[in-house]
Amino acid sequence: MRSRRTTLAVPGSNPRFIEKAQGLPADEVMLDLEDAVAPGAKEKARANVVAALKEGDWTGKVRVVRVNDLETHWAYRDVIEVVEGAGADLDCVMLPKVSDPSHVRWLDRLLTQIERAMGYEVGRIGIEAQIEDARGMVAVDAIAASSPRLESLVLGPGDLMASINMGTLVVGEQPPGYTEGDAYHYILMRILMAARAHDLQAIDGPYFNVRDVEAFTRVARRSAALGFDGKWVLHPSQIEAGNAVFSPSQEDYDRAELILDAYDHSTTVEGRGAARLGDEMIDEASRKMALVVAAKGRAAGLKRTSVFEPPST
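Given the sequence above, the corresponding C-alpha cells read:
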C-alpha cells in the first residue's frame, strides 16, 4: 500500500501552488480539477496539471488528479486529457461524489481504453473514490468492491454533512446540540469497515480551519485511533501534524518489529506457535497487529533503535 498519511489538495488552476507542493513533505498530492477550480478555469487547469505532472519533481509522492464528478460535462474530458497527456506520470485518478459502484466501473473502463490506446500498462493507474452523500454511504460496500483499481475510500465531509442535513457549518466539528458521543463515528467506521473488507485504504477528509493546527490534530487523532490511514490537508501548516498523527511512535514501531522477530524465531527455530517477549506472551494475533504498526513505521521512514536477542534458554 502507498503511504497516504497526508494528502495535500492543490488547485489545478494555480501554478504557483502546484510548484510549491512539490517541495512539501505530504505523502500524496492531489491536483484538483473539481471544487477548487472555477467553471471558467477548468480547461486551463487541465493543461496546468498535465504540464506539472510531466515536468515537475514529484519524487517520493503519490501523484493524484481529482476529476469532476459524473454529473458534470467536464468529467470525461478531464480523464481523457489528463491521462492521455500525462498518464505515465500519474499514480491515481480520484473520482468525487461516488454514490454508486457504476461510477467507479465507468472510470475503470475509460482508463482501460485510454491505456490500451496509448500503449500504457493496463491497470497501473489506480482509483480513489470519494464518499460524499447519503447514497454513497449506503452503497459503500458495493463501491469498495467495484474495481480492482481501487486503492482508497475517501471521506468528503462537507458534501456529506449537507446531504444528511447535519446541523453545523463547521466541517469536521460536532454539530451544536449533539452531546451524546461523536456525530461522525458511524460515518468513519462505515467507511473503514468497507475499506478493510476489500483491502483498501481509508482516508479522512479535510478540516477547513487551516490556521487552527491544534484543532486539526485533535480531529485527526479521532480517525487515526479508529484505524484510518491518513487525512487530507488544505494548507502546509497541517502537513507536519498529519504526518505525525498517522505515524506510529518510535517506541511502538520498535516494539512491533521486536514482536515480529520474536514470533518468527519461536515458530521457525523453536517450532512453537507462541512466544514470549519480556513478560508478554505473543501469538499469531500479536503478529498481525505488529505487521500493521511495522508497515506504517517503515512507510513513514522510521528506523529501528532496538535489536532482537533470542532467549538463552
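The mean pLDDT is 94. Try to locate this feature in the C-alpha cell string yourself.
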